Amino acid sequence: MSEADPVQSVRDDRKTAAIAAQRARVSDDADIVPRFSFARDILRSPHVLQAGAGADQVKVDNPDHTSVFFLDGELHHRRRTQLARYFTPKAIRDRHMLVMERSTAELLGELRASGRERLDLLSFRLACDVAAEVVGLTDSNPRHLATRILNTFNSLDPGDDGKRGGLKNALRSMYHTGRFWWQDIKPAMRARRGQDKEDVLSYMVAEGYSNKAILIECMTYATAGMMTTREFIVMVAWQLFEKAELRAQFLAGDETEQLAILDEILRLDPVATFVYRRPTEDVVCGGDMAKADQLYALDIRQANTDETVTGACPFSIDPERAKRQKIAGSWLSFGDGAHRCPGSQVALHETRIFIDALLRLPGVRLANVPEVTWNERIMGYELHGAFVECDVERNGG
Ligand code: HEM
In this model, does residue 161 exceed pLDDT 70? Predict the structure, then answer.
């Protein structure tokens, strides 16, 4: 896409900007950071603390067993080093890709047999299969695991007004968490006693994590890895079904070109809206001062479209952009610095594999666009209810 093209200069390919403008909000005491360089430098600073998702209230009774998300400094660095081996390019190629391909084949087989399936249900099952393999939740029925995780997650949702709660909700949440614990986590833990299966759960069992710590970490991965990837896959499908030229470019592209397209789609509609940090001392970030003890909400959506780094036409999909601007193609979509998403390559590859296979199905089409809704708890968009259709595969062909 040419920078000088006047049509491009007014183009806006974002799908969720309107709902985010309406619904995204931060806590009253937070300063919003819309500038890319300021946000990136905060994330990269060694003098900031994780301040997202209730980090202030997390009781670190045993820091060795606190979720990686809430750790900081040396403890966090050590934990990330220990977990890194489950996310290396080799682990992705040798192990996780097999699951991505097997799950994609199974899901698309169902689509070919029925001719019509709900896209968000397919993408969630894929995301669950893959994250379950990374975490080590592999000793229960994967279909039931996906449902139990979804029920557990939804039971923790405060609802649109943010106020639903009370005894009924607490009981509902206990019930679903209990089922997830007994039917998925426990069998997986048993299978890993004395046996390293090279996954996060094996590590936690070997290290003697408490039951509570294991449950929390499994939920962290479920939220961080499954719900996010579910939305991402639907977003990519929506954009590529809609844009014939981009679709052709994706299908003709090699792995690097395909990943550049995915990165660019995520730049415009990042699944994570805000990440939070609190500096422990004054820090110079992007030429400005981030103040000690101030809570900062880094606005990924705005930072990713900051024209000073994106160049012209910040709202249009342009897979050449990152290369031209000499910047990492993931922008801030997966965060940056010490807490940068360890699962980013997992998410990108599973999306690439699934979407590539989906778009090649005979007669494939998007029957209807998804409904865009907003999840108050994670402050992010959700895309539900889109159906994909394709030619039905008759027996034997
Ligand atoms: C499109 C999909 C995904 C998106 C948009 C995403 C986004 C993010 C972001 C923005 C962060 C940084 C949070 C912060 O700095 O406060 C993060 C952290 C994290 N993500 Fe992802 N993620 C995705 C997929 C995954 C997957 C597939 C996994 C694992 C299987 C995963 C596991 C994690 C974990 C464990 C953390 C916490 C890391 C830490 O605090 O050190 N994510 N993710």
Answer: no
